[in-house]
Amino acid sequence: METLEGRLLGALETHDAEALQQHLAQGVDARALIQGKPLVQWLLEMYFRSDRFPLCLRALLARGAVLEAAWLETVLLDDEEALRAALRRDPELVSRRITLRSTFTPLDEATALHVACEYGNLRAARVLLEHGAAVDARAGLDVHGLGGHTPLFHTVNSNANRSAPLMELLLAQGADPALHIAGLVWGRGFEWETALFDLTPISYALYGLLPQMHRDEAQIYANVRRLLAAAGRPAPAAWNVPNRYLHPQRPG
Question: What is the pLDDT of residue 238?
């Protein structure tokens, strides 16, 4: 029989806000720990990305859960009006830094714009840019000197291509699609951890084809095509997508 912990983790994994709210209404403590980790942290670290994430986060916060930094709330909730109000109170929010454990692209000494792009929060990203967020702000470096990536890196091979609209937004704001970094560790600390070296947003997009990333081939190549165009670089006329070697035609 499935345990309560299992059902809670399932609701957090699939962003089932209704099930999560039912558990909380039935007495589950929003500050409870599962395997030593708060529920809100499980939500932040889950592999899935969707528009239902803010609903789950809001349910936890309403019942007493707390984020590592209070200023993250409006960014993660993708709450445009609340974020504008927060920026009026504290204009420095656009340049504040935080380090979070990230399922995919690292969030080491990341800005609010890095966070918005990682979670696919378009409304928050727009507001941050309107208030002067640096479109090519560099994240911090890890202990091996890897990182230094810009918010654009969080958008080019995102889960279910959720952050593709943010990629377009950043490019329209002048983000550099050819910016080079020494590398980064994708999914650091998780089973799918993968070290990648000598990256630009273009090459990082292509790493979405790795099997552990579970990305869609056509979406990845569409992102690469868009980044090449933004960099003023020619692209091949034929893309062989889906790849004929991997997906041979089968007789009807």
Answer: 87
Q: In 10 A of CB 146, how many CB atoms?
A: 20
Type of residue numbered 163: S
CA distances from 24 to 18, 27, 38, 225 (A): 10, 5, 14, 45
Secondary structure string (H, E, C) spanning 159-203: HHHCCHHHHHHHHHCCCCCCCCEEEEEECCCCCCCEEEEEECHHH
Q: What pLDDT is recorded for position 250? A: 58
pLDDT band, very low/low/confident/very high, at 247 (cuts 50, 70, 90): confident
Q: From CA 134, how far away is CA 128, in angstroms rounded?
A: 9
pLDDT higher than 60, residue 252:
no
Token pair for 237: 């006329």
- Helix (H) / strand (E) element for 33: namely strand 33-34
Distance CA 17, CA 25 (A): 12
Give the pTM: 0.96
In angstroms, the CA 56 to CA 12 distance is 7
